[in-house]
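Reopening this one. Same input as before:
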Amino acid sequence: MAIFLVYLMLMWLGIGGWLIVDPAALEASAGVAALSPTGETELRAMYGGLELAIGGAALLALLRPRWRCHVLFLNGVVAGGIAGGRLVGVVLSGEMSVYTMTALAFELSTVVICVILALRMQRSGE
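Same output, byte for byte:
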């Protein structure tokens, strides 16, 4: 479980930190661009700040094992929600890019692993 939490921490903190510093990076990779300073702030908040918070939760779970189930729940719900929205977007747009496939792979695998680990914790009484 600790290895998975380190992975989640690094992924969320890495992407979040990158997009706080350089929200314009989304334009090249995903076609998402800010059209105003408010838009840039929104990208920093939703892509940077939110992902930094999720990564911080994974770090907390590494330092405080009693939070692990909560952090698995958080990651499963957040990744599942993002994947659900992304899948709706794919259906509505009729397009699936490499970026979208990569993001979906991360999100859906995160959901599956979170569920497996949470069930394992529940069975072992952790």
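So the earlier flakiness isn't reproducible anymore. For the record, The radius of gyration is 16 Å.
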